[in-house]
Design a protein that fits this description.
By secondary structure, the chain is α+β, with helices and mostly antiparallel strands. 27% of the residues lie in helices and 37% in strands.
Length: 123
């Protein structure tokens, strides 16, 4: 994932993760929202915490999260929102679901004018 801001990088990483195993069902289903506020030490650990919390919220609430807004991101905290329909009502699972976010090969770095992340998922 690559973005001009750290917030954008976190949002794109989330969109990429959920894009691996969810797809819109084509109907206009009601969207639900979840707030996420996580803390960790360092960009990489923060990325893992952010993505794992989104996976947890998705599983517990039965939501296929598709829209991500990161209000603020720093080296120790990310705050944002995710929205999506319930599975079955407005989205469906495709392929293997993501079981976990791994630390293997994980990186979140600033390169030139961009933030980029590499994340490998356990499916």
């Amino acid at each position: 994932m690559r973005a001009r801001s750290l917030e954008g990088c976190f949002a794109r990483a989330a969109a990429g993760m959920f894009g691996c195993f969810t797809a819109p069902a084509g109907s206009k289903a009601a969207m639900s929202s979840v707030a996420v506020d996580v803390r960790a030490n360092g960009y990489e650990e923060l990325m893992v915490a952010w993505l794992e919390e989104l996976l947890y919220e998705s599983e517990v609430k039965g939501l296929a999260l598709h829209e991500f807004t990161v209000e603020s991101a720093s080296k120790s905290r990310v705050r944002g929102f995710a929205r999506g329909p319930e599975f079955g009502a407005g989205a469906q699972a495709v392929g293997s679901g993501v079981k976990a976010v791994t630390r293997h090969g994980l990186e979140v770095v600033r390169v030139g004018g961009y933030w980029q992340a590499r994340v490998i998922f356990d499916v």
